[in-house]
Amino acid sequence: MSKKVLITETILRDAHQSQAATRMRIDEMIPMLEQLDDIGYYSLEGWGGATFDSCLRFLNEDPWDRLRTLRKYIKKTPIQMLLRGQNLLGYKHYADDVVDKFVEASIRNGIGVIRVFDALNDERNLECAMNAINKYKGDYGAVCEATICYTTSPVHTNEYFIQKAKTLEQMGADNICLKDMSNIILPYTTYELIKGMKKVLKPTTKIHLHTHNTTGTGEMVYLKAIEAGCDIVDCALSAMGNGTSQPATEPFVATLKGTEYDTGIDIEKLVPINEHFKKVSQRLEKDGILNPKVRGIDVNTLIYQVPGGMLSNLMSQLQQAGKLDKLTECLAEVPNVRKDAGYPPLVTPSSQIVGTQAVLNILQNERYKMVTKEFKALMKGEYGKLIGEPDPEILKKVVGNEKRITYRPADDIAPEYEKFKEEMKEYYTQEEDVLSYALFNQVAINFFKYRLARDKKVDADAAKSEVYPV
Ligand code: CO
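# cobalt (II) ion complex -> structure
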């Protein structure tokens, strides 16, 4: 029986987020959008994650305009976005009214698949966003893809992940995404895990796997996944595929051709599209944004279980302190801190929080003599529920007698949309501006000022601001 494998193309989002700090511009995408639309992908990932931030901060593009432009050219294929649950695209929890409005505006402006995740896999942080997706998806046809962040620890067993998948399905997920942020999942584990999930999920629930090829196991992971029944995998065209990005699209299409898993994609149609993105990749390299190192394999993550981005953060913190010789000790301290904090997955923001605390513990020559505000908040439950129980003694040392949060963190946040609207009213041109401001405050205001100057030509200097810095 044939079991066609579906592919999500990430060239418009994660590929350049992983290799080139999310700096691909809309004018570099437009020439290929109609051709990408004709390929027969399951979806085209093109928005969310860091694209929103990068549009406002570096590219002087209205992220909502970018989405509308994508939708103008991509008429058949769903556009996919990545959403950080109650954090939306920002770095803190937002009130439920802002989450609801953001999801509504995303779907109304053209998003077709919303992949929603929480760094701690706390489903309470997904509840509000998932309810909103299911509330608005009928109007335009969108898919609710709830996500599990993959990590390894004594408490992250296959049973845990399988149970989590079932819970998310019961909460209203159409698809379940297994998201391996840093390519630490291994091929045979993937096989067992997907098999187990397939057993408990409804036959109509699709499993969507996301990994990178940072450590060089990406294609093997995908192959074992589809043998276990995985429905959709994320790939990036070879121009910006592999390395820190997703496994490349073309070799995968070729591998499956003529088998029961045939993707139905015509590899020859990918050639001219890929040629175009090669030139974009070269432009990014020439501008010093893309470091050719990102195209290779780095096995450090396999050895230290520390994601690539986190490793470079650790090194730069130690370099600044003139203590690069302490790197091995700090790397050894990371799993200890993670254990003390109840084994959070190492993904933004928890990777930075755990990494910084490990460095402090080593440089202070005493564990938890100094703690960051963020580490304390993590231990208090302000980011969400920790899957393991934090070490009681360390908890006492870090949190003291302050109360820990055991409920959904956003329950503490009063509605805030009207307040945001009032604060930015002099720049208001559309409802979406309020949401840009809610997420990125001053960065959004700077963009609004630029836009005003550009449209009214009132201040040539403001309109000329740096457009494509490194
Ligand atoms: Co990714």
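# post-check
Residues 14, 181, 210, 212 surround cobalt (II) ion (CB under 6 Å).
The two ends are 50 Å apart (CA to CA).
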